[in-house]
Amino acid sequence: MCGRFYLDVMMDELEGYFSLEASTISLKPRYNIAPSQDILAVAAPNGARVLGGFHWGLIPFWAKDEKIGYKTINARAETVHSKPAYRAAFKYRRCLIPCSGFFEWKKENNIKQPYCFRPTSQPMFALAGLYEHWQDQSGREIDSCTILVGEANQDVAPIHDRMPIILQPEDFDCWLDPQVQTKEQLLPLLRQSAPGEVDHYPVSRAVNSPGNDNADLIKDISNSDQFRLT
């Protein structure tokens, strides 16, 4: 799964990587992004790529209650095309979620040790996502999204058996194109990342609390006393 990530790039880096027009969105580093928070995603509903804010936890357009979003922070790549909560968005409303790195946990000596996963060569990850627009009976509206996950590759598997789906720049156009709608076209994009694309190291357990948000959370502690004592 993917239940926590961070984004600490500059706006010009993000615009360049995703081929965006200049954005008016204010971007500041966030080191501990958690479900139910607002996150950034790139979509192209009318052909041009745009950056917008979305609630993390997808709320299907047909949902009676927004609380369903607590259960839909991730969608399994293997079944996303057929699950009722995701199949319409998979067909018509796909997005890319900028990510500098993500966190996973491994139980070591009865302690859940967090690890940070970062790209080895790309400036950032582009996570495959879906988005929805929801409105309740009072007219209140929420744009929401989910992150697709699949089987871990050999870089991530020693820590966790699942990982977010990372798309390559050559796949962005196809994934974002609302005219592309068949599973035969889309599912092949959700392939496992190649070995060597992701690096990882242990980080402070302070990341366990979503209330903590600072650059110390992504520091490598493999040589620190804190890690040697786990």
Report what the structure shows:
The protein is mainly β. It has one domain: SOS response associated peptidase-like (hypothetical protein yedk fold, Alpha-Beta Complex). It contains five helices and twelve strands. Strand 9 and strand 10 form a beta hairpin.
Brief summary of the model shown:
With 230 residues, the chain is mainly beta.
Number of domains: 1
Structural class: mainly beta
Termini distance?
23 Å
The backbone outline, from C-alpha atoms, is globular
Proportion of β residues?
25-35%
Rg: 17 Å
Secondary structure tally, helices: 5
Arithmetic mean pLDDT: 94
Which superfamily, in CATH terms, is the homologous superfamily?
Answer: SOS response associated peptidase-like
CATH fold-level assignment: hypothetical protein yedk fold
| Number of E-state strands | 12
Family: Belongs to the SOS response-associated peptidase family.
InterPro entries: SRAP, SRAP-like
GO molecular function, one term: lyase activity
Protein name: Abasic site processing protein
Keyphrases for this structure?
single chain, 230 residues, mainly beta, hypothetical protein yedk fold, 7-stranded mixed beta sheet, 5-stranded antiparallel beta sheet, 5 helices, 12 strands, 11% helix
List the helices and strands and how they pair.
Layout: E1 5-7, H1 11-17, E2 30-33, E3 38-43, E4 50-56, E5 74-76, H2 87-92, E6 94-99, E7 101-108, E8 111-119, E9 125-135, E10 141-151, E11 162-164, H3 172-176, H4 183-186, E12 198-202, H5 225-228
Parallel strand pairs: 4-10, 5-10
Antiparallel strand pairs: 1-2, 1-7, 3-4, 6-9, 7-8, 8-12, 9-10, 10-11
